[in-house]
Amino acid sequence: DWAHQTVPQSNLGGRVDWMSLREGVLGGSTAMNTMYLIRPSSPEMDTWAELLDASTYNSQSMHTAMHKSETFIPPLIEPQRVGNIQYDVRIM
Questions:
Q1: Confidence of residue 61 (pLDDT cuts 50, 70, 90)
Q2: How far apart are CA 23 and CA 73, in angstroms?
Q3: Secondary structure of residue 91 in the 3-state scheme
Q4: Dihedral angle over CA of 22, 25, 31, 35, nearest 10
Q5: Looking at residue 12, what is its pLDDT?
Q6: What's the N-to-C CA distance of the chain in angstroms?
Q7: d(CA 58, CA 91)
Q8: Which pLDDT belongs to residue 43?
Q9: What average pLDDT does this structure show over 33-50?
Q10: Which range in 7-11, 16-20, 29-33 is most confidently predicted, on average pLDDT?
Q11: Residue with more model confidence, 24 or 87
Q12: What letter would DSSP give residue 75?
């Protein structure tokens, strides 16, 4: 606990509250788990499958397993417009 406090909060009757900071680790905020997934590339997965002599870890079977565990929820229209977010729902 880094013992950080907020400034007095007018909507809380002037109460000072504790801030819950969890990035007190080597790497700072980048070490926090934000449930953000970046898939490995197909060549990476295929190389691991080859090194492990385990065809169940090849890119085709891994992508199938990943798709089963994912749910795509598109962003709201306004953030899409502001951030120029584009995606092709056919490949989701």
A1: very high
A2: 28
A3: helix
A4: -30
A5: 86
A6: 40
A7: 20
A8: 94
A9: 83
A10: 7-11
A11: 87
A12: P
Q: Which residue type is seen at 39?
A: R
How many alpha carbons lie under 13 Å from residue 69 in its C-beta half-sphere? Answer: 9
Which residue carries 């950080």 as its tokens? 4
Residues for the chain: how many in total? 92
Side-chain-facing half-sphere of 62: CA atoms under 13 Å: 16
Instruction: Estimate the crossing angle of helix 59-68 against helix 42-52, to 10 degrees.
Output: 120
Give me the DSSP letters along 5-74: BPPPBGGGTTB--B------STTGGGGS------PPPHHHHHHHHHHHT-GGGSHHHHHHHHHHT----P
Burial of 66 (0-12, 13-18, 19+ CB in 10 A): middle
